[in-house]
Design brief:
By secondary structure, the chain is mainly beta. It has no helices and 9 strands.
Length: 143
């Protein structure tokens, strides 16, 4: 909502919002491709669900994967546990590196502490150690 000008300047009543969880995932180093390399991995599509025994199941696919892309070697799974701290990239932890198998892939996480909200993301890693863009971030609150 605009307020009247004062001395030629405008004031806006829009308040600054505090930063929200999760913080952005840390960026990865760029690897300059060689001429004969194929394209780096595409962005994974991540899903989450709670299993009947209280574990978290993450599953993902690469919907745009084709022969134009380099072979996927592994996937890196990241977790972020919300706390009362300010959002920070330091709260992102590498949960696991899993070898690539036939898609779609899934991973079950069992050592999760109840009473927190968690966020997860995945990156694909190709045979040249290039990482895909991070997947969509999925979240779950365990009470």
């Amino acid at each position: 909502m605009r307020q009247p000008s004062t001395n030629g300047t405008r004031r806006f009543s829009q308040a600054l919002r505090p930063p929200t969880h999760p913080a952005p995932l840390p960026s990865v180093p760029y690897i300059n491709p060689l001429l004969f390399w194929k394209q780096p991995p595409p962005k994974p599509n991540l899903k989450i669900r709670l299993t009947t025994d209280g574990a978290i199941m993450l599953s993902w696919n690469l919907p745009t994967l084709s022969w134009h892309h380099e072979e996927i070697m592994s996937y890196r799974i990241y977790s972020y546990r919300e706390t009362s701290e300010e959002p920070s990239q330091l709260l992102w932890k590498t949960e696991a590196d899993v070898y690539a198998r036939a898609l779609p892939m899934a991973c079950t996480l069992m050592q999760i502490i109840h009473g927190y909200k968690y966020h997860f993301a995945v990156r694909a890693i190709d045979m040249n150690f290039r990482m895909s863009p991070e997947s969509n971030t999925v979240s779950i609150e365990l009470l």
